[in-house]
Amino acid sequence: MAHLRWFGHAAVELGLSGRRVVIDPLIKENPLSPVKLSYFSGVDVIGVTHDHYDHLGDAVEIMKHNDKSVLFATYDLEEYLVSEHKLDWNRVIPANVGGYVEYSGLRLALTKAVHSSKHSDPTGIVVNGDDITVYHAGDTGLFEDMRLIGEIFRPDYVLLPIGGRFTMDPKQAVMAVEMLRPRKGAIPIHFNTWDMIKVDPQDFAKGVKEKGYTPIILQPGQSIEL
Questions:
Q1: Metallo-beta-lactamase domain: from which residue to which, for each copy (predicted)?
Q2: What is the per-residue DSSP string for 153-181?
Q3: Do the Cβ atoms of 112 and 125 come closer than 8 Å?
């Protein structure tokens, strides 16, 4: 059954087309995570939006404990992880910002994000399966090209950072929802993990409702059927 589960911060699991996809799996240093790394046994795809520690997280360790999982990130970040962390090049999906890449019943894409990173440009990730499209924005500020992301990928659900300081705040994230036009729901992420990104997600929910879209506020560990 298609589902989405949030583990706190930006860590998200998607179940689509019979595959398990985890994006930005910060678990061990995530004070909000209700699960341990053993939960990710058998995961199929690990998506990483950029190389900051709170997004790269435990991706390498999860890869090394799952022989069949593959990594989806920008080519340059993949190249760095292969050379520095000894990942198997045959277990990465080479990609960059552009169109869909087909993998094992899924369609995956990388999008622009406005942020920083060391080994590659930051990105968002789009995952399509079971006729459902989910856009995880990664870490990003607000940018006008979100209109194009909405037009090209027509997301059903969007996951948007709202913590401010390092990313959009709730008000800016509401503006992003207007540009992306999600058909089923807008989900806030990357907030309240630490005091520096403490905000009230209800401010986001109220703004999203006022614009005619559906906010979905999750608690860490909570999952929804897609």
A1: 8-190
A2: H--SEEEEE--STTS--HHHHHHHHHHH-
A3: no
Low-confidence spans in the chain with pLDDT less than 70: none
Query: CA-CA distance, 209 to 49, in Å (whole number)?
Result: 28
Angle between helices 170-180 and 146-153 (to 10 degrees): 40
223-225 sheet: strands from edge to edge: 92-93, 70-72, 45-47, 19-23, 12-16, 3-6, 223-225
Element holding 82 (H helix, E strand) = helix 75-85
Q: Yes or no: say if 33 and 11 are a contact pair by the CB < 8 Å rule.
A: yes
Structure tokens at 2: 């298609």
Q: For domain 3-215, give its CATH number from 3.30.9.10, 3.30.420.40, 3.60.15.10, 3.40.50.300.
A: 3.60.15.10
Cα–Cα distance for residue pair 179/148, rounded to 1 Å? 8
* pLDDT tens-digit map of 158-212: 999 999 999 999 999 999 999 999 999 999 999 999 999 999 999 999 999 999 9
Tell me how far apart the alpha carbons of residues 123 and 217 are, in angstroms, rounded to a whole number.
Answer: 23
Contact assessment for residue 93 and residue 108, using Cβ atoms and an 8 Å cutoff: yes
Instruction: Check if the beta carbon of residue 43 is closer than 8 Å to that of residue 22.
Output: yes
Place of tokens 């090394």: 64
The Cα 169–Cα 69 span in angstroms is: 33
Q: Which token pair is 59?
A: 């991706």
